[in-house]
Structure formats: C-alpha cells, structure tokens
Design a protein that fits this description.
single chain, about 140 residues, mainly beta, five-stranded mixed beta sheet, four-stranded antiparallel beta sheet, about 10% helix
Length: about 140
C-alpha cells in the first residue's frame, strides 16, 4: 500500500525543479528552450524556430507554432498537397499563414513590409510524427 504522505512530499519537492529558472522568454512550443529575438534585413530570407522573433525597423514577427499540418508526406503520392496552418504573432496582431498557396493568400502586409512565406520544414513523412519543436519557418519581409 502506498502511503499518501511520502508521495505528496515527493511531489512537492519536485515542483521547484519545474519552475522557470531564468529571465529568458519561454514558450510551451519551444519545450522550455530560450527563444531568440534577432534583427533581419528587408528582402533577405530568414528562418525562425517556434518561439523565435524577427525584428525589422519596429516590425516584429514571432513564430508561435503550427496549429495543424495536413501536408502530403514526402514519401507518399497524394491527390493534393495538403496544408499547414502557421500561427504568428506580429506587431500588427496575430495572423495565420497557410502553406497551400492560392491567389487568395498573397504576401501579408505588416507595417511598411510584406511578409512572404517561403517554406515550412521539415516536410512530413508517413511514419514519423513531427514534434512541435522540429518546425522551421522560412520567411522574408519585402519592402
């Protein structure tokens, strides 16, 4: 029989280990890893991991995460390419980009720039689930 007092005591002792131990910003999708905030150049491609932020002349873009991913796995032949919904926080407010490019989702204006989705990696594979922290978002801010 398990005694409640020792189990409760062990749980309480483990709680401090779960606390945030530093000033770095952390997000659930980044698995507790510190996020980065870096300056980018207009017209130049850049890559963000979940939780990362890119800044350009007061415009900020943060990769929050991928809320759904139904893209066709790279090792399968599909009737359509599928789509991934990519959640971003921007200096103009939250937006969702989609990997399925159509004329109805052109580059997104953010301040004086236009946000262009270049790619979302890795591509899915039929027998390997993608952990949320594995995504890398390739973007560009055009003038």
């Amino acid at each position: 029989m398990i005694r409640p007092a020792p189990v409760l005591l062990a749980a309480l002792l483990a709680l401090p280990a779960c606390a945030d131990s530093g000033p770095a910003r952390r997000t659930p999708l980044s698995g507790g890893a510190p996020t980065t905030d870096r300056a980018v150049k207009a017209g130049r491609a850049f890559t963000l991991a979940p939780g990362d932020t890119a800044s350009l002349s007061g415009v900020r873009v943060t990769f929050v995460g991928v809320s759904s991913d139904s893209r066709c796995p790279s090792d399968v032949t599909c009737a359509w390419p599928g789509d991934a919904a990519i959640d971003l926080g921007t200096s103009d407010g939250p937006i969702t980009l989609h990997t399925l490019q159509t004329p109805s989702n052109p580059p997104i204006p953010i301040g004086p720039y236009h946000l262009v989705l270049l790619d979302l990696l890795p591509k899915p594979h039929s027998d390997t689930p993608l952990p949320p922290t594995s995504y890398r978002l390739h973007l560009r801010l055009d003038p």
